[in-house]
Amino acid sequence: MRLNIGNSLAPKEKNVDVNKTVRQVLRDSGIEISSNHQVTIDGTVIGTNDYDKKVKDFAISEGSYIVTVTKL
User: Fold this and answer.
1) C-alpha–C-alpha distance, residues 69 and 24, integer Å
2) In CATH, what number is assigned to the domain containing residue 20?
3) Rounded to the nearest 5°, which phi and psi values hold at 49?
4) Residue 10 has what pLDDT?
5) 3-state DSSP assignment of residue 3
6) CA angle 12, 6, 19 (to 5 degrees)
């Protein structure tokens, strides 16, 4: 499935294996999640315990966004 993945300033459209976890998809895109990151899926913040859920477990569709934001 093609999703938009990346940081909030420049997400890029990529083919994503929806059977991978959110953490794996971000790692495959070159993003390591740390404690100062917040992850959103289509604008909804997900909790740190959701990072290890499979992408397909969320209500996503073609063109959805998985974006990281650095917390200040």
Assistant:
1) 17
2) 3.10.20.90
3) -70, -15
4) 87
5) strand
6) 90
Question: Which letter does DSSP use for residue 49 in this model?
Answer: G
**What stretches of the chain adopt beta strand conformation (E)?**
2-7, 12-15, 37-41, 44-46, 65-70
What is the number of domains present in the chain? 1
Residuewise pLDDT in 10s, the chain (72 residues): 999 999 888 899 999 999 999 999 999 999 988 888 899 999 999 999 999 999 999 999 999 999 998 877
Q: What's the CA gap between 49 and 8, in Å, rounded?
A: 21
Query: Residue with structure tokens 């459209």?
Result: 13
Q: What is the pTM of this model?
A: 0.89
